[in-house]
Task: structure prediction
Amino acid sequence: MSFSEFPSKLLESAVNEFASLPGIGRKTAFRLVMNLLRRNKDEVLKFGESIIRLRGEILYCKVCNNISDTEICTICSDERRDKSLICVVENIQDVMAIENTRQFNGLYHVLGGIISPIDGIGPADLKIDSLEEKIKNGGIREVILALSTTMEGDTTNFYLYRRLGKYSTSITTLARGLAIGDELEYTDEITLGRAINNRNPYQQ
Result:
């Protein structure tokens, strides 16, 4: 069937919405929509409601910027975590990747991206002020820069070191068990766990 000729405008609209997602081509989008049509209405309504509630009710932790169902996420509110240790990551996916290693027991700080001039992202677009405020307030003994080993990640590491290095907090980076150009969320758990445990002092 040609994807330029749909028997229904509703079908075409649904396919277009699915195809707008990253990594979803129009053929895959069509299969997903047809799968929904084969399900009973209650299942589809539940599916749609979960997406609407996700967009409308999701919160971001006031402490670390991680996605949460409450104002303070379960990691930040866990009294067993080491609150003097902060792991700085690019995004929520990186928090999940590190948590899956079960090798880290501190808190996180989600920047919401990395410095990338080509994409128009500068330091002012990231959650850096709140990170500096945490360190300035004291009680933080170590900040781990756990960013991707890409040019943008290294640029962000350098900027953070220059900005935070004036405080008496130790600044470390992940061990270079990670290949150059790797993104944390795609790194296997064993390699990532070793990189956390064998972290090194940041070197310019």
Q: What stands out?
A: The chain is about 40% helix and 15% strand. The chain has a mean pLDDT of 88. The CA atoms of residues 16 and 152 lie 32 Å apart. The first strand starts at residue 59 and ends at 60.
